[in-house]
Amino acid sequence: AGYGIISKGKNTYLMNFGVNWLGDGQLSSSINPLMQGMFLYKRKVGEKFSYFTGATYSFVFGGGLPFPVLGFQTGNKNTSTFQVILPLVLSFKSPAVKPFGYGFHIRPDGNISFYQDNGQYGDELIMRSRAIKLGGFLSYRLSGFTFTLESNLLANRVISLSDLDNRGVFDDSLWSRDIENGLNVNLKLTYRFKSGSGQSGFTGMPGDF
Questions:
Q1: CB proximity list for 7: less than 8 A, separation 6 or greater
Q2: What's the pTM?
């Protein structure tokens, strides 16, 4: 996965891309990579207000879907920020310039993966998952490194199985079931390389789609 940012004056362009290649060991050599990506344009219209628009192709709803992206952001790196992205992302983050940080978010979460089945459903199956993610994080920044502890509640979870010929999201699946809510905790370490130009103005990449 990777992304690029181009910033000129009040205009910022962000491109994000990735490859989904999830599957078990028996299918690892035959799985076709599933591409996903996003393009966003951001316009700063005030010291503490920006809007952005664009498009994405993503698997967060359990299948590959293209859809438009529209949203806005209040605040900047010196203040707390609030971000709304349609169809469904809400996030709040503390000022980016402080060593300690925190934030909260709600957004969709889902994926698609491939499995070899020797049972009643056939040879090769697609497993799809979708949920709503509600979570928060605490972070600490030191000399370019950022340590982040994130906790998320996965609610309204659904998984389904279908064969390779049925690439719809959750319609006509071979098997589908609601799953109990669950909690996951992640610990991340990131490093940011400094650059003399091209500051994006994004206080967090709106790339959760």
A1: 13, 198, 199, 200, 201
A2: 0.72
Residue found by looking up tokens 């219209």 in the block: 45
Contact 7, 21 (CB under 8 A): no
The span from the CA of 91 to the CA of 106, in Å, is: 6
Q: How far apart are CA 209 and CA 203, in angstroms?
A: 16
* CA separation for the pair 45, 72 (Å, rounded): 11
Residue 8 — very low, low, confident or very high, per pLDDT cuts 50/70/90?
A: confident
DSSP state of 9: T
Q: What is the pLDDT of residue 135?
A: 95
- Is residue 17 within 8 Å of 1, Cβ to Cβ? yes
Q: Quick one: how far is CA 6 from the chain centroid? A: 20
Residues 17 and 133: their CA atoms lie apart, in Å, by 21
Sequence-ordered list of residues with C-beta below 8 angstroms from that of 10, at least 6 positions apart, any chain: 43, 44, 45
In one letter, which amino acid is 100? Answer: F
- Confidence category of residue 198, pLDDT binned at 50, 70, 90: very low
Q: Is 185:151 a contact under the CB 8 Å cutoff? A: yes
Comparing 93 with 60, which gets the higher pLDDT? Answer: 93
- Residue 139 neighbours by CB distance under 10 Å: 20
